[in-house]
Amino acid sequence: xxxxxxxxxxxxxxxxxxxxxxxxxxxxxxxxxxxxxxxxxxxxxxxxxxxxxxxxxxxxxxxxxxxxxxxxxxxxxxxxxxxxxxxxxxxxxxxxxxxxxxxxxxxxxxxxxxxxxxxxxxxxxxxxxxxxxxxxxxxxxxxxxxxxxxxxxxxxxxxxxxxxxxxxxxxxxxxxxxxxxxxxxxxxxxxxxxxxxxxxxxxxxxxxxxxxxxxxxxxxxxxxxxxxxxxxxxxxxxxxxxxxxxxxxxxxxxxxxxxxxxxxxxxxxxxxxxxxxxxxxxxxxxxxxxxxxxxxxxxxxxxxxxxxxxxxxxxxxxxxxxxxxxxxxxxxxxxxxxxxxxxxxxxxxxxxxxxxxxxxxxxxxxxxxxxxxxxxxxxxxxxxxxxxxxxxxxxxxxxxxxxxxxxxxxxxxxxxxxxxxxxxxxxxxxxxxxxxxxxxxxxxxxxxxxxxxxxxxxxxxxxxxxxxxxxxxxxxxxxxxxxxxxxxxxxxxxxxxxxxxxxxxxxxxxxxxxxxxxxxxxxxxxxxxxxxxxxxxxxxxxxxxxxxxxxxxxxxxxxxxxxxxxxxxxxxxxxxxxxxxx
Length: 582
Description:
mainly beta
């Protein structure tokens, strides 16, 4: 598209005036902009592991397109649904201040976009910079509908670490040879666990350790003596992952789009929903070798899992032939030593090193006082078999379920945010979610005989600006397990964590209220607990759920209602005209 320049004699004078104005007022040149994207939801034939299938994609891409913006920018993303599935898109980690209508979880902040319909997600990125991501937020469609969301700092604002030579997103995923919607549909019908994936992927590619996949290998080509910023995203449905690059160390500089105090590591752990930025310093000279970048699961539960390893290849450009790729078959290939699958000590050692940068420019605004305290238990349970005179495939003929405070959350048939905004909550949800377990027990000890959970759509209601402390306790009812919990609409500070049962008398004294890590998704340790604090300064209805998709499908989810404040900038904006209808 060309640019029209006026031919009027006055134009040079106007141009000179604008040039001088921008020079004298540089803020105008650095002003935030509005960025437009269009997401066409379409089917695309894709082949992996020698299996060809039709998958739901954005713009025919797998993974989906990269969104790039700067802090302060406004995004207008038009999503048009051309497939038979209903769709909604979540912008994972975006605060959505006053724009809860754009958050995306189906039946929570919006009704899904139906076939032939469209919706424009309209939001501004306020006070955030770093690596986030977007994904479908309905059923299991996020197995193929996902992509990076990169937020650059404002122009002229440097990173709090050396500027990298190049930045590269690495997004981990899972691949099923069969249709994933059929996988979860079968599991919910039979009451058993879902079939596990056939492979993990890096940027959509499974790599050479899988059958028929040598050609489908992600290669990161680097130059010697350079610094690379790797933007890691775990988009896998059901697995936390260990990640390492052979013979290279990594420096962690950010998690969940929040800077951290840098530290070096050979291996990191990343849960579904989490992002981690690491700095890779390449070797000073061409190493005459190639190196695997590998990831495999960190496993804590008793269920089946995909016990395989995804690998990409770190490949150096030759000093002698910088534009010529040497055959990697002629070079030795080094493999990283990843921790054992159940190595909780390695996982804990990594997460315990995470600390907020807590600098003058990037402070850690940890709530020092607490208005409301909550204690939530999370874990698996059961519900009776729904089929008359039949046995289900869950424990003792029951159906698997999952819960928060023993309530398995039932999604309504209309959007919770609409019901709240228009004062029509009756028959949709009740505002009486329990602040603590109704029946306390030894949460990580001998499990109770009764594993049944209740079912309901109950929410917590918070006045605007309430300072919240929430302790989330894992349970061993059907086996202790790590749960990556994601809170929409907020970042929170992880002020404490430990193993066993939380001790309200002694554990709070050990809380870190100075520089705890700030994030939007936290892993609750298997057989342990996490304490978080956040300020409820964002009006709307906000989903909180386990980011293991199978647990979310079973009901390990709930929602918070944050009421409007008194000032105009403390109120939820009205819904857009094109908001989808149920």
